[in-house]
Write a structure and sequence with these properties.
single chain, mainly beta, Elongation Factor Tu (Ef-tu), domain 3, six-stranded antiparallel beta barrel, six-stranded antiparallel barrel, 4 helices, globular
Length: 211
């Protein structure tokens, strides 16, 4: 698992799709839809094949590491649910290694399992912070609570307000400088992971009603 505390800004080296429809020519149907290579000196400093690294909030499994970069396979479900399919070489991404058993939970419990995508619709600069407004479908906002936690592109944030079709967050100077959220402009998309506890509560309540 992760905590939503970004460790470094990585840089996309390549996002390679085997062919246009996501299946590698001449191979079977289980071929990965895309192969992502990301440069990140800190993230790769102790990474080994099989390790998990969150890329813009998406938990990916490292398949190889070399020269300060790691490679991960990105499956069709991930591309459907997240913004990773739109990455281009040179794009900056938030990176976080998986939390060690003796690590500090500095943000909140983040699984790296993205629930959907929200779009920035407004940005209001403050004296030392920015207020951001996102549009999101009701299927996401139903799990978002004012003063609760949400992960946006892998960044653990506190929700300032929420409605049926959107929510807001505020970014402190450290977050503005150390993550990709500082450079967002209206129209940009972010990966959203809601609090997993809300989803389990809903599931348990629904099961109870069914009985």
């Amino acid at each position: 698992m992760f905590t939503g505390i970004v460790e470094e800004l990585g840089s996309v080296v390549a996002l390679v799709r085997p062919d246009g429809d996501g299946a590698a020519s001449g191979t079977d149907s289980v071929a990965p839809d895309a192969v992502l290579t990301v440069a990140g000196p800190l993230a790769t400093s102790d990474a080994r094949p099989g390790d998990s690294i969150a890329v813009d909030g998406v938990c990916l499994t490292v398949t190889s590491v070399a020269d300060g970069a790691f490679v991960a396979e990105v499956m069709p479900e991930t591309l459907r649910r997240t913004s990773l399919g739109g990455l281009v070489p040179g794009a900056r991404v938030n990176l976080e290694r998986a939390l060690p058993a003796n690590g500090r939970l500095g943000g909140h419990v983040v699984q790296g399992h993205v629930d959907g995508v929200a779009t920035l619709v407004g940005r209001t600069p403050g004296p030392r912070w920015d207020d951001l407004e996102f549009a999101a479908p009701a299927a996401l906002t139903r799990y978002v609570a004012e003063k609760g936690s949400v992960a946006l592109s892998g960044v653990s944030l506190t929700v300032t307000w929420v409605s049926d079709d959107g929510f807001g967050v505020s970014l402190i100077p450290t977050t503005l400088a150390a993550t990709t959220l500082g450079g967002l402009v209206p129209g940009d998309a972010v990966n959203v992971e809601v609090d997993v506890l809300a989803k389990y509560v809903e599931r348990l309540m629904a099961a109870g009603v069914a009985r």
